[in-house]
Automatic annotation (TrEMBL):
<keyword id="KW-0597">Phosphoprotein</keyword>
<feature type="domain" description="Response regulatory">
    <location>
        <begin position="647"/>
        <end position="763"/>
    </location>
</feature>
<keyword id="KW-0808">Transferase</keyword>
<dbReference type="GO" id="GO:0000155">
    <property type="term" value="F:phosphorelay sensor kinase activity"/>
</dbReference>
<feature type="modified residue" description="4-aspartylphosphate">
    <location>
        <position position="698"/>
    </location>
</feature>
<feature type="domain" description="Histidine kinase">
    <location>
        <begin position="396"/>
        <end position="619"/>
    </location>
</feature>
<feature type="domain" description="PAS">
    <location>
        <begin position="1"/>
        <end position="34"/>
    </location>
</feature>
<dbReference type="InterPro" id="IPR005467">
    <property type="entry name" value="His_kinase_dom"/>
</dbReference>
<dbReference type="Pfam" id="PF13188">
    <property type="entry name" value="PAS_8"/>
</dbReference>
<dbReference type="Pfam" id="PF08448">
    <property type="entry name" value="PAS_4"/>
</dbReference>
<dbReference type="InterPro" id="IPR035965">
    <property type="entry name" value="PAS-like_dom_sf"/>
</dbReference>
<dbReference type="InterPro" id="IPR036890">
    <property type="entry name" value="HATPase_C_sf"/>
</dbReference>
<keyword id="KW-0418">Kinase</keyword>
<dbReference type="InterPro" id="IPR011006">
    <property type="entry name" value="CheY-like_superfamily"/>
</dbReference>
<feature type="domain" description="PAS">
    <location>
        <begin position="254"/>
        <end position="327"/>
    </location>
</feature>
<dbReference type="InterPro" id="IPR013656">
    <property type="entry name" value="PAS_4"/>
</dbReference>
<dbReference type="Pfam" id="PF00512">
    <property type="entry name" value="HisKA"/>
</dbReference>
């Protein structure tokens, strides 16, 4: 140890020196053995050094090796050599095995003069600071960013250009997204290096200043990638492209404007040579086709046909050839992305002629726009028009069917009056009537889909409605399926037809049951959704408003995507023959739409399906003239005696319906006059001198429809009672009448008893 340049001293557990080497004696200024002191005594007058010795002693006591660096004026010899210059020392301490004679471990202290090393560090830091100062105030901007895009260094020049306060800047507090405008990020992200290499590229783009203004710059951008493929930090020199001498201002300005247009254009743009290889592309091109080709492929002049789906390449290449030939008008090419057929792209071709210089290679300019949303809207519109057309057809067919069924049902009733239960023909007549009623149910479903059925809306509390339905639904879904109902708190009222809403709930519950042949769980759920929350749901066509939501959720098989888009179409069914008409969900759709609500379906194959019905919140307005509940007119009870002696004018263009109605009313004692149209009805009224007690009229008739007949009759007979019969909803024609028009309504198809009851009640009703 005597030959070592570092001073070394070994002390026992009591701090007494066991062994010092010559370098230690020389450092501490000792001239003989008696002058050598322990290190803690040598440094006792230096507070900072004493603290360091204390920390080192504690570390050794804990069995650790440690070191400290201390600065001592005049050195350990306290200026014995005549110099009071500060000296830097590195002090190390570690424990040694002391043996039995020392009764504990020894401590080895090592002291090294590191003044030259510290001076070298100081010189390095000064030079580094000078370099940073030069970099900070260079005439070019500079920044470095980590792989996450966070800026870890920004020089003063670039900070000044951007309006960034460097005193507030900390590494990572700014990102590239904060300073790069428009689609410039796509250009930056597209630059990648192979593992273990670096890559330099030049990018023209705009930066965003803190005041919102843009700054046209040119990036000399360097990226590097580690051998394991992990991206490293980027280093980028930034030049202000707006600067230049007076002679180049116009040219530079034009170049900047073009670059801004090229890189910020909302469509993808690519220049190609005569063989269809890309020469240059803009940021939007890299953005749209990022999953198909990368920047490296583009730099290697990839063939543009590679971004076109294989099935459309022949059409694309023909259009490209037309552009190469200088053809001015070329039809756009619609295609999808290779490997992602859900994204639709439309290409436009333009020929390039008479260009020189750098652009001499260009043979055509290709622009492309993504039309995915447009295609989706077109499909939605086509589907909507299809549903509307089917609805109109269904409504028309249903109206005609209702006339036929009305005649069948009333004829059956007339036959039943003459054939008792003991008659051999009785079962056949009942079978005719029952099947006619079954057909009437199917017609009602068609009308529900076409939104032409008659609704009787009333104020509903869905909590009460579902509570009343629980027993029925439990029986319908069976014992293998758990039925759960989650009631929302303080549900808002809604206005809907109670019977139709119950039909919706039953239909959805039965569909959910059929989706779980091996059992599962059906959850009916209600809740309020305020307008602000509804806006966040992003359901198509759902206006921002307050809603009460009714959900039917199952844990069944789920619905595939190709089936999901067709579930509301009439006659579409996935059930076996005889197990479904294909009208259930279309009926639900029609009822909800006619009620003013919205219905959506979320489904995942193998997990289940949820139908969500949004019903508008009803905000009731109490009027001052509303009568108290106790004073309101009592509900008219159903008539039990259906006979009468009044004079009835029956107006119906369908002969079978009119004949059945005449016989039905005559059998009850009424005097009946019949007319096949509104015009004929007016003539009969004139012949009778207005001696008619009640008019029963169809709505849709040739020459003059029912509403027009009502208006004409009320001109001369304002108090005449009037009943409309129709296969359409009441509100389908009531809107064409004055708001105060009073009339009764009987939906087709109806039975003999229903017709007689409605006439009797209308005659007894007090206006």
């Amino acid at each position: 140890m005597d030959t070592q340049p570092e001073g070394t001293v070994i002390s026992d557990p009591r701090g007494q020196i066991v062994y010092p080497n010559q370098a230690y004696a020389r450092m501490t200024g000792a001239t003989d053995a008696d002058g050598i002191r322990p290190l803690d005594q040598v440094l006792a007058s230096e507070p900072a050094a004493s603290d360091a010795i204390y920390r080192l002693t504690n570390a050794v006591r804990d069995g650790l090796s440690a070191q400290e660096e201390v600065r001592i004026s005049g050195g350990l010899s306290r200026g014995a050599n005549g110099s009071l210059a500060p000296v830097w020392y590195r002090i190390k301490a570690r424990a040694l095995e002391g043996g039995a004679e020392f009764k504990g471990p020894l401590v080895a202290w090592q002291v090294a003069d590191i003044s030259e090393e510290r001076a070298e560090q100081e010189r390095f830091f000064q030079e580094l600071q000078e370099a940073i100062n030069h970099l900070d105030h260079a005439p070019a901007g500079f920044f470095s960013a980590n792989p996450a895009g966070r800026i870890i260094y920004l020089n003063a020049t670039l900070a000044e250009w951007l309006g960034v306060d460097l005193t507030q800047f900390t590494p990572g507090s700014l990102t590239l997204n904060d300073i790069v405008a428009g689609s410039g990020m796509a250009l930056i992200k597209a630059v990648k290096a192979e593992p273990g290499t670096s890559r330099n590229t030049v990018i023209d783009l705009d930066l965003i200043k803190r005041n919102g203004q843009s700054l046209a710059v040119r990036f000399y951008h360097r990226v590097q990638t580690a051998r394991d493929g992990m991206p490293g930090t980027t280093r980028t020199i930034v030049l202000d492209r707006a600067e230049g001498d007076d002679s180049s201002v116009a040219q530079r300005s034009a170049e900047v404007r073009f670059t801004r247009f090229f890189n910020s254009a909302p469509m993808a743009i690519a220049a190609v040579d005569a063989e269809g290889h890309t020469l240059r592309t803009n940021a939007r091109f890299l953005d749209i086709f990022s999953g198909v080709v990368d920047r490296d492929a583009i730099d290697r002049r990839v063939k543009l046909e590679n971004v076109v789906h294989e099935r459309d390449r022949e059409t694309f290449n023909k259009a490209l050839a037309a552009a190469f030939a200088g053809q001015a008008s070329i039809s756009p090419v619609d295609t999808v992305l290779p490997g992602n057929e859900e994204r639709h792209i439309r290409f436009y071709m333009s020929p390039v002629t008479d260009l020189g210089g750098e652009a001499a290679e260009e043979a055509a300019v290709i622009s492309a726009v993504e039309t995915t949303e447009q295609k989706a809207l077109e499909n939605q519109m086509a589907q909507s028009q299809k549903m509307q057309a089917v609805g109109q057809l269904a409504g028309g067919i249903a109206h005609d069917f209702n006339n036929v069924l009305t005649a069948i049902i009333m004829s059956s009733d007339l036959l039943l009056t003459n054939h008792r239960a003991s008659d051999p023909s009785f079962p056949d007549i009942m079978n005719i009537k029952q099947n006619a009623n079954r057909a009437a149910s199917l017609v009602r479903q068609l009308l529900a889909f076409s939104r032409r059925q008659t609704l009787r809306p009333e104020v509903l509390d869905l909590t009460d409605v579902l509570a009343d339905l629980r027993m029925l639904l439990a029986r319908l879904v069976g014992k293998d399926i758990e039925l759960k109902i989650d009631h929302g708190r303080d549900l808002w009222p809604v206005k809907a037809d109670l019977g139709q809403f119950e039909q919706v709930a039953v239909n959805l519950a039965v569909n959910a049951r059929d989706a779980m042949p091996e059992g599962g769980q059906i959850t009916l759920r209600t809740r309020n959704i305020p307008a602000a929350d509804a806006a966040k749901l992003h359901y198509r066509d759902l206006p921002e408003a307050d809603y009460v939501v009714f959900e039917v959720e199952d844990t069944g098989t789920g619905i595939p995507a190709d089936v999901l888009e067709k579930i509301f179409e009439p006659f579409f069914t996935t059930k076996e023959v005889g197990k479904g008409t294909g009208l259930g969900l279309s009926m639900v759709y029609g009822i909800i739409k006619q009620t003013g609500g919205f219905i959506y379906c979320d489904s995942e194959v193998g997990k289940g399906t949820t139908f969500k019905i949004f019903l508008p919140r009803l905000i009731e307005e109490k009027r001052a003239d509303d009568a108290p509940v106790a004073a309101k007119e009592k509900k008219v009870e159903k008539a039990t005696d259906l006979s009468g002696s009044a004079t009835v004018l029956l107006v119906e263009d369908e002969d079978a319906v009119r004949m059945g109605g005449v016989r039905a009313l005559q059998s009850r004692g009424y005097t009946v006059h019949e007319a096949a149209s509104g015009v004929e009805a007016l003539e009969i009224m004139e012949e009778l001198g207005g001696e008619v007690d009640i008019v029963v009229s169809d709505v849709v008739m040739p020459e003059m429809d029912g509403p027009t007949l009502l208006r004409e009759l009320r001109k001369t007979h304002p108090d005449i009672k009037f009943i409309f019969v129709s296969g359409y909803a009441e509100d389908a024609f009531a809107r064409n009448l004055p708001a105060d028009a009073k009339f009764g309504f009987l939906p087709k198809p109806f039975s003999l008893k229903q017709l007689a009851t409605t006439v009797k009640e209308m005659l007894e009703k007090q206006d």
